[in-house]
Amino acid sequence: MSAESVTAVAPAGPDTSGSSSGRRHLGLALFVIAAAQLMVVLDATITNIALPAIQTDLGVSDANLAWIVNSYALAFGGLLLLGGKAGDLFGRRKMFQVGIAVFTLASLLGGLAPNESLLIGARVLQGVGAALAAPSALALITTTFPAGKSRNTAMGVYAAMGGVGATVGLLLGGTLTDVLDWRWVFFVNIPIGLAVLAGTRTLVEAERHPGRLDVPGAITGTGGLIALVYGITRGGEHGWTGGVTLVSFAAAAVLLAAFLYLQARTADPMMPLRLFKDRTRSGSYATMLFIGAGMFATFYFLTLYMQLILGYSPVRTGFAYLPFSFGMAMAAGISSKLVTHLAPRLIAGPGLLVAAVGMLWFATLEPDSSYTAHLMPAMFVTALGLGMSFVPMTLGAVSGVSHQDTGVASALLNTAQQIGGALGLAILSTISTSAADDKLPEAAGSLYRGLATKDFALVAKAGDAVTHGYTMAFVAAAAMFLAGLLVTGFAINAGRQQHTEGAAPVHMG
Questions:
Q1: CA dist 10 to 98, 205, 206, Å?
Q2: Which residues contact 233 (CB under 8 A, 6 or more apart)?
Q3: Nearest partner of 115 among 164, 77, 61, judged by Cα
Q4: Phi-psi region at 399: left, alpha or beta (left = phi > 0; alpha = psi -120 to 50)
Q5: Burial (CB count <10 Å: 0-12, 13-18, 19+), residue 105
Q6: From residue 132, how far is each of 102, 151, 503, 509 by CA, in Å?
Q7: pTM for this structure?
Q8: Are 409 and 275 in contact, with CB atoms under 8 Å apart?
């Protein structure tokens, strides 16, 4: 059966006439899309809270711990554009169903993982599922909900899930790890995923488009990024002149060069290079790369600091992040009003400067720093700065884009955030480990031994070294925000925003 005939016999959408039955169908459809978006977004942060418990239970090395976060981000970010194209070709609802099914299965495998290798593999599979489902979710809103109030409401709920997901992930991750076990941060996705799959019959299939998947682009692009991140991680642990490290960097260079070559010559590229011709758009992508790098580090290192150094329980750690969520929501609301009056760089630039100040505040942490006087205000300041940056960067990414490229342009911004986070975390983990080991060889291992044996003298000595490593990572993160500030100042020259339709929300976490 041809694609055209499949589209022709696609089920008519739910009754949208205003009857109680129609409203119920739309309500269920909204629940399905919102639950899927929440599940995909919260998984970027829910695992952070469980990292110390995972490391202790599975014996994960300090260097490999970052891969539990990065493996998801790389697969999600690296395949996001391919997932969007697959939805165009094979049907949005079908790819949404496949993505949720893969994500749910991967969550089961992650919860059952007996070692770090299988857990990292499950995280990669989760990223694949998220990359298939996330792009289709937004498109299904436009085909399922009639234009007007119901569609606007659905878009608002969808966007809210992007911001709420990070907070829910931190709180839920802490509660599940503390009350049950770290494995439940994965198992919790199973009932949600099954409920979403059961409700997909209420979603209306989108029209299919001609073209083909850019599989070579996906392989070379994602493979190159994985090789680059592995080379950075390996170099920090085993030395920068080691054979495996050099081979990783060489493979990254070859694969990424091949990716750019293919994108320039492929009829249906995964990443259309024409989108980078506009200075403002390119600047927005580059800035989001730096924002992602610093933001991922904030969650990662602060979580370790609060649990390993301050001795917070997982649930207390989750609640400790509430000032970050409040600051982000407050600033995003303010910046969404300012964009109609000010150019994007005049909002994002000061925001990044404020975020850098917050990171430098974190860089003054000591093993006995106070939450109320130190951590809480630094979190709020950092979140204010980041929240001021997200909205103008999203709008800058779609400014002046033709209608056919709006979805790809928005997806590229999310891709930049995820890839930036993975690269940044690899770099900052290397900096942190090296700085800590300079003060005390194998500082992290010594800290864990001291905690296990209740050797408080060793805990104090190792804790001081590990905290020093974290602070050096925060200094580097501040430098990344300042680099984003420079890009914003020199590259983003768009005026105040006049048209924003079609912009996909950025995942704030």
A1: 17, 7, 9
A2: 63, 64, 66, 67, 426, 429, 430
A3: 61
A4: beta
A5: middle
A6: 9, 22, 19, 19
A7: 0.76
A8: yes
Give per-residue pLDDT as tens, 166-193: 667 777 777 888 778 889 888 988 988 8
In the 8-state DSSP scheme, what is residue 366? -
Assess whether pLDDT exceeds 70 at residue 203: no
Q: What is the mean pLDDT of residues 96-116?
A: 90
Question: CA–CA separation, 365 vs 433, rounded Å?
Answer: 16
Rounded to a whole number, what is the distance in angstroms from the first to the last CA of the chain?
Answer: 41
Pick the closest to residue 472 from 429, 409, 413 (CA basis): 429
Residue 167 CA to residue 42 CA, distance in Å, equals 8
On the CB side of 332, CA atoms within 13 Å amount to: 23
Residue 148, by phi and psi: left (phi above 0), alpha (psi -120 to 50) or beta? left
DSSP collapsed to 3 states, 154-221: HHHHHHHHHHHHHHHHHHHHHHHHHHCCCCHHHHCHHHHHHHHHHHHHHCCCCCCCCCCCCHHHHHHH
Asked whether 82 and 95 are in contact (CB, 8 A), the reply is no
For the CA atoms of 77, 78, 80, 85, what is the dihedral angle to 10 degrees?
Answer: 170
Q: Which residues contact 206 (CB under 8 A, 6 or more apart)?
A: 87, 91, 92, 93, 136, 139, 140, 142, 143
295 neighbors 492 (Cβ within 8 angstroms): no
pLDDT band at 236 (very low <50, low <70, confident <90, very high): low
CA dihedral sign of residues 155, 158, 159, 164: positive
Residue 334 and residue 385 in contact, taking contact as beta carbons nearer than 8 Å:
no
Q: What are phi and psi of 173, to 5 degrees?
A: -60, -40
pLDDT reading at 415 higher than 90: no
Contact 52, 313 (CB under 8 A): no
471 near 367, Cβ under 8 Å?
no
Helix, strand, coil % over all residues of the chain, rounded to 5: 80, 0, 20
